Amino acid sequence: MAEDLLRAFSLASRDLRPCRLWRAQLSVRNVSKASKAAQNPGPAGPDLAGRAGYLVEVAARAPSVHNTQPWRFTVTEDAVELYADAGRQLLEDPAGREMTISCGAALFGLRLAIRSLGYQPEADLFPEPGQRQLLARVRAGLPAPMTHDERAMLQAVPHRHTHRGAFEPGPLPGGLLARLKDDAAAEGATLVVVEGGPAYRRLTKILGAWSRKRDLYPTSHAEIQAQTETQRWTREPGSQARDGVPAHAFPAAAGREPGHLPQRDFDLGRGWGFSPSGGPPAPVTAVLVARGEDEQSWLRAGQALQRILLRAASQWVFAGLQTQPLQSASVRAQIRGSLTPTGSPQLLLELGVARTAHPTARRPASEVSTDR
Predict the structure, then answer these.
(1) What gap in Å lies between CA 348 and CA 345, rounded to an integer?
(2) What are the phi and psi torsion angles at 138 (to 5°)?
(3) Which of 211, 196, 184, 206 is nearest to 282 (CA)?
(4) Does domain 2-161 have CATH number 3.40.109?
(5) Residue 268 region by backbone torsions, left for phi larger than 0, else alpha for psi between -120 and 50, else beta
(6) Within a 10 A sphere around the Cβ of 148, how many other Cβ atoms?
(7) Considering the domain 176-353 in this protein, what is its CATH number?
(8) I want to staple 116 with a disulfide (CB 3.0 to 4.6 A). Which of 35, 241, 267, 368 is the partner?
(9) Which tens digits make up the pLDDT trace of 315-326?
(10) What is the pTM of this model?
(11) pLDDT of 230-273, one tens digit each?
(12) In whole angstroms, how large is the CA radius of gyration of the chain?
């Protein structure tokens, strides 16, 4: 089973993405029906255009910076193309690094959706060098039934979410952390755990210096950009928006509690967010590290991220994601020099158990996909 899983999701078998929708809300029931119905695929292969809504719906449940959902899909009978939507790129992300990581996470979801149809996904990354917005072209390859592990990840898609509240006390489920490391490696990335003691103090020292610099220069160009984008992509209580970060998903005060990494201030003093409840520190802090600082590495890091998050969510472990400090090349260099001697750090994760799930909304597939 482990060999089948690695073959299904390894880079050796390439990578993928989907398009269009059955319903506005993805449910476990829909996921299960699609998975079971596809375990006996026809000899001619699946009609991807006929399944476009389901494929896009699963892919679009991926995490994205500020829930910008910066992706578009084009679907034909035999392939799905994934594009970056530059209109949703943040001002504070001029190189498109976070946008590409977000799209990579959606790409893994597309691959998983095609696996649920009973086929191995085959994806070409950046298939046309002249079209840099075209990130991947995905096809259904050889028939192969889903493994138990893949089904568990698919079942976790509807309730996976970024967690900004308190975690339950206690460690992660036994053996999970090792599996998460293996998942990252299978996608061409590395999950580096920041152990307590000296390593964690080095990390907090780096982040503390970055935070103090921001406090000293609140009117700097970078700070103005960050606040502008936060205001643009946060949603007030009761909003029916299908993108952005809703008020139920962020605290009313930026977290700088001892033992916790600093959180981005989504509330900006507006009183929209939930009341912080404290709680113990996350039992695991980790850094997701890409092989390099290029678009291919970012796209692979995004796939690793979603694979890690779905594996974790299948055991009710969720992650707080910290991306803002790593927008600074200096912070990334310092983390690389003191904590991750090889590769390029991309984001920080705080992992812990939480028994509640309140996923954020997604745009309907009709808004993010076209047929061709």
Answers:
(1) 8
(2) -120, 135
(3) 196
(4) yes
(5) left
(6) 9
(7) 3.40.109.10
(8) 35
(9) 999 999 999 999
(10) 0.88
(11) 999 999 999 999 999 999 999 998 766 666 788 899 999 999 99
(12) 20
